[in-house]
Every structure is written in C-alpha cells, then in structure tokens.
Design brief:
binds ribulose-5-phosphate; Ribose-5-phosphate isomerase A; NagB/RpiA_transferase-like; EC 5.3.1.6; alpha/beta; isomerase; six-stranded mixed sheet; 13 strands; four-stranded antiparallel sheet; ribose-5-phosphate isomerase activity
Length: about 220
C-alpha cells in the first residue's frame, strides 16, 4: 500500500467514526491537507445529510463547497461535535505537530471548539518524540525577526517559509533542530513570545483518537 492508499483508508475509517454525528445533525469540523482532502471527498455522498461544516482553511472550505457541502462560520455554530484533521507528527500521547500546510491557527481554533478531535494519518507520522518535523510558528509579519531571535534562544533554528502568507495574512517560521521533550511547556513558551499568533504544537489540546493507516489496516490509538 502506498501513502495515498493509507491516507484514503484512514479517511474512510473517519467517515465511519462521524457517521452518527452527521445523522444526528451535528456540525463537523474539517481539517486541511492531503489526508483531510481524502476525508472531504468521502464526505461528498453525505452532502444532503450534513447540517454543516466548519473548515480550518480557505482551501478546505472551497473543496467542501465544490462538493455541495455547506460551510458555516464558527461564530454562528456554537461548539462542534467532532473535528477531523491530519497531522505532520503524532507521539503516543496523541500530542501533535501540525501546520505543514500553514493552516495551524484555524486548525487550533476548530480543535479547541470541538468536543472530539479525530486525527487521521499514515503510519509514517507516528514518532516517539516530536520535533524531527520542523515546528511551524505563525507570526505577525512585523515581528518576524524578533520572534526568530527568541526562537533561537529556545534552542531552535527558525527558517522563514518564503512566499507563504497564511489565511490570516501572517507569515510562517519553521523551527528546525528542535526536539521537543515537554510539548505542553514548549507550546506555552512559544505562544508567550510577543508577535506569535500560535505554534503548531497540539499538546494542550491533543487528539482524542488517532486513526493510523498501516499496511495491516487502520489502527486506533487513544
Ligand atoms: C495543515 C496541517 C496538515 O494536517 C498536516 O500538514 C498534514 O498534512 P497531510 O495530510 O497532507 O500530510 O497541519 O496545516
């Protein structure tokens, strides 16, 4: 099985997880990235049953609309029953690194507003310690150099993601060489730097369920 097939398998497993919420008329939170795209495509046949979705990026919102699935403003929905999204890394506590697609801030908002967060990923994403994947940090543009210097003080090697502007009009610094022993502390420490909008650690609000695609089938980690 190649990586795409593994992503499709976890997306299909996630559909099974959210089916009852769809039929109960709940709002579904939708993530961003290639695995989330597979999930969106498999949601299409349920377009008439889904009350509405909240998307974590303009790209996902557009893909949902292309399928005829309603996309709502989080300000009008109240809390969300379940959020489905991919990840760049997960450890065994289901603490994540996200933001490879630059959607981390909206992803974190939708995750925060959701009762349940289902992460979908192929097995290459499961790691013992977070940090081999460079940690994305969304930054207000005028604070770029200041925040980069502060990240160096924390032991990282921040690199400006050239040519990328987030849906919120900000820039991304990717922090390399930053093995993360205490994800909650690191998440809080980076968020406390003035000029940081948020960082791609999802440790304070980790996933509740990880559906992991493996050649032996989809594994459920809680
Ligand atoms: C986007 C994300 C994605 O969930 C993450 O990058 C994983 O993407 P993919 O499913 O394409 O591997 O955090 O900001």
């Amino acid at each position: 099985m190649d990586q795409d097939q593994l992503k499709k398998a976890v997306a299909a497993a996630a559909i099974e997880e959210v089916k009852s919420a769809i039929l109960d008329g709940e709002i579904i939170g939708i993530g961003t990235g290639s695995t989330a795209n597979q999930f969106i495509d498999l949601l299409a046949p349920y377009r008439n049953e889904i009350k509405g979705t909240v998307a974590s990026s303009e790209a996902s919102a557009q893909r949902l609309r292309n399928h005829g699935i309603e996309v709502l403003d989080l300000n009008s929905t109240g809390d969300i029953a379940v959020y489905v999204d991919g990840a760049d890394e997960s450890n065994h506590r289901l603490e994540l690194i996200k933001g490879g697609g630059a959607a981390l801030t909206r992803e974190k908002i939708v995750a925060a507003a959701s009762a349940r967060f289902i992460c979908i990923a192929d097995e290459s994403k499961l790691v013992d310690q977070l940090g081999a994947f460079p940690l994305p940090v969304e930054v207000i543009p005028m604070a770029r150099s200041y925040v980069a210097r502060e990240l160096v003080k924390l032991g990282g090697n921040p690199v400006y993601r050239e040519g990328v502007v987030t849906d919120n009009g900000n820039i991304i610094l990717d922090v390399y060489d930053f093995m993360i022993a205490t994800p909650c502390k690191t998440e809080e420490r980076i968020n406390a730097i003035t000029g940081v909008v948020t960082n791609g650690l999802f440790a304070l609000r980790p996933a509740d369920l990880l559906l992991l695609g493996t050649p032996d089938g989809v594994k459920r980690l809680t």
